[in-house]
Amino acid sequence: MRRRAAGLLLLAAAMAAVFVARGEAPPHPPGQWWQRAGVEPRYEDLSGLRVRYVRRGRGPTLVLLHGLASSIYTWADVIPALAEDHEVVAIDLPGFGGSDIPDDLSSSVHPATVLALMDRLGISRATLVGNSLGGVVAVVLAARHPERVRRLVLIDSAGFNLDASRRPMILRLLAFGPVAAALDALPVRRRVVTAALRQVFYERARVTPEKVEEYLAPLARPGATEAIRSLLNQPASFGLPALVREVRVPTLIVWGRNDRWIPVADADRFASAIPAARKVVLEECGHVPQEERPAEVVHLLEEFDPGR
Q1: Cβ within 8 Å of residue 6, ≥6 positions away
Q2: Largest CA distance in the chain
Q3: Sign (positive/negative) of CA torsion 138, 232, 132, 251?
Q4: pLDDT of 131-177, one tens digit each?
């Protein structure tokens, strides 16, 4: 343990030595994609938190839940097509995107926020679509509130990898206080975001300047790094993976064959744990198929949950 801590401190010091003399320009204004996707940000105050979301279309409701350190932006390329036959609601989970950052971001906040927004919008039941961390939230709701979940779609979902030893190295570092503090203090966020996105995507060409800035802007907010660290240091409180076996709603599992953050073997674990779950693996695709293969993801969702 001491060796690990010393190593992480050394890495933090190395980062400081390399980057402290270099400035970092502030993030470009986010939200250039709103018009392209035909949405505009909306807000609701839920249990003292201002939560950002978008809503478009008519038909059976799809609630889209993003991953760790992500935002509504991750769904930008699938919202327009899905909204042709569905009501689409995409949420910035508390701590991320344009939603408030709670003083204490516990794992119970996200499922409670999704239910509260559904109540506020008059949505009695919905198909939940979760990527990465969003998949964890979707599983919790499907297991504990099946009356609110019509169907479940897990896209490269976390759940079987919550132990620190199974995380990507960059997330292990962020969970360590001195490294998280260094990220806040030093002009390195843009470099870290770029490096993380290059791991997340199979095709590096998809890591565009727009994408980097959209991911960077929310992480530059005061408290954003601490919110990530807080979640990473309480994985057991989600109740996964044990809770996965309590899911009984129809489930579709979509995975990128080349996901370097959560291996495709975890898709098999979800499929084995959830009765009658259907699994689809996309070739030459990484951790965020909704961004890397949007047309295929739309097709799979519409096939699994036909619209009006």
Answers
A1: none
A2: 58
A3: negative
A4: 999 999 999 999 999 999 999 999 999 999 888 778 777 777 676 66
Q: What is the pTM of this model?
A: 0.89
Evaluate if residue 10 carries a pLDDT over 70: no
Three-state secondary structure along the chain?
Answer: CHHHHHHHHHHHHHHHHHHCCCCCCCCCCCCCCHHHHCCCCEEEEECCEEEEEEEECCCCEEEEECCCCCCHHHHCCCHHHHCCCCEEEEECCCCCCCCCCCCCCCCCHHHHHHHHHHHHCCCCCEEEEEECHHHHHHHHHHHHCHHHEEEEEEECCCCCCCCHHHCCHHHHHHCCHHHHHHHHHCCCHHHHHHHHHHHHCCCHHHCCHHHHHHHHHHHCCCCHHHHHHHHHCCHHHHCCCHHHHHCCCCEEEEEECCCCCCCCHHHHHHHHHCCCCEEEEECCCCCCHHHHCHHHHHHHHHHHCCCC
Q: Where are the domains of the chain?
A: 35-304
The model's pLDDT over 13-67, given as tens digits with 9 standing for 90+, comes to 444 434 343 456 777 778 889 999 999 999 999 999 999 999 999 999 999 999 9
In terms of CATH architecture, what is 35-304?
A: 3-Layer(aba) Sandwich (3.40)
